[in-house]
UniProtKB/TrEMBL annotation:
GO terms for biological process: immune response; lymphocyte proliferation; T cell activation; tumor necrosis factor-mediated signaling pathway. It is a single-pass type II membrane protein. One of its GO terms (cellular component) is extracellular exosome. This is CD70 antigen. Residues 29-166 form the THD domain. It is found in: Cell membrane. It comes from Lynx pardinus. PROSITE patterns: THD_2. The lineage of its organism: Eukaryota, Metazoa, Chordata, Craniata, Vertebrata.
Length: 168
């Protein structure tokens, strides 16, 4: 059987990362998440959700835990990207924001492997965004934190988080 032909090798016909990466049937380990904005924030942690039923978000080959944090099932080099837009942010509200407002992405569990991967400032603006390549191990849980009492926009076009395995 031709492994490059969808449907013949077990690969699905729909869009898949293998088409983007030029591989015939690379395992799919990727997620594009939107904010799970269900109530008042009680801590720094942002909680995420992913499902085609929500629109453009999905989780494929990774796992969202009960707290809305992303867990890696297979180690490798991943590309992380995040954008957070502050809710109700405009030039007139910038002065009311804490001067050290930060957005962080890190490995929060296992505790022995805890490390910060990205630390972004808003620098007086309304948006923080970045991406990076980083090695992640099986079982790593990624956490995203935003300085309290700031509120992220719930708009999926303004606030999102994603990862993609680029090298096993």
């Amino acid at each position: 059987m031709d492994k490059n032909r969808p449907g013949r090798s077990g690969c699905e016909e729909r869009w898949r990362p293998s088409r983007l990466l030029g591989h015939s049937c690379l395992e799919r380990d990727m997620a594009e998440l939107q904010l799970n904005h269900t109530g008042q924030r009680l801590d720094h942690r942002l909680r995420w959700q992913g499902s085609p039923a929500l629109g453009r978000s999905f989780v494929d080959g990774l796992e969202l835990d009960d707290g809305g944090q992303l867990r890696v099932r297979r180690g490798g080099v991943y590309r992380l990207h995040i954008q957070v837009t502050l809710a109700n942010c405009s030039s007139s509200t910038r002065a009311a924001r804490p001067p050290r407002a930060t957005l962080t992405v890190g490995i929060c569990s296992p505790a022995a492997h805890s490390i910060s991967l990205l630390r972004l400032g808003f620098h007086g603006g309304c948006v923080a965004a970045s991406q990076r390549l980083t090695p992640l191990a099986r079982g790593d849980t990624l956490c995203t934190n935003l300085t309290l009492p700031l509120l992220p926009s719930a708009n999926a076009d303004e606030t999102f988080f994603g990862v993609q395995l680029v090298h096993p």
